[in-house]
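Structural biology now treats backbone shape like a language. To illustrate, our science desk offers a sequence and the tokens encoding its fold:
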Amino acid sequence: MFSFYLLFCCSATLLLNYYIRKWTQKNLFICSVVSGVILSYVSCYYNEEAYLKFISFIWYMVLINISLIDVYTLRIPNSLTGILFVCALANGIFDNSVNVLSHILGMVSISLFLFTLCKVKADSFGFGDIKLCAADGLYLGLSNMICAFIIAVIAAGIAALCILIKKKKLKNVKMPFGPFLCFGFMLASLYGECIVNWYFSLY
């Protein structure tokens, strides 16, 4: 089974690298392939049906694409966000264990929070980040989505602190939030339940 995922990974990353290069004007083929190989391993050994593994693999690869494109362009393509929505809907249709209400709340909760922040303080977040949170909240569900967002905020805070130490200032430094969100989404999809259970065990 893993050989199939590895073959699929190599084919997919060829197409994905072409798409990344179209946006960033940079050849990130090695980065794409290495990421794809790692994620093909993760997807292959998920304890799920084959079609759910396929959906999760596509979801992971799109998140990697979004991260790379956002780093270089500070933009998140709507086409990739649309694919994430399709993955979330497909996962909801094929996975009988999905709690529909939890996933709808996951879609609305963080995206609505970010939208409200944008209305209060303009340009605090991009609309690409809001749409990304809506798509992945629908995929992850409420608890994993909140976990993912907290991870993203902590990771972004650490990165901002490193930039502050190095450059002595943050003013006029544009730091994309998309890669941190994607990191949080992927980590929460793998260990979200464990992290949430560990947190509540402290009380």
About this structure: The chain has one domain: 2-201. Helices lie at 2-24, 29-44, 50-73, 78-94, 100-120, 127-140, 142-167, 178-201. The chain has a mean pLDDT of 83. The radius of gyration is 17 Å.
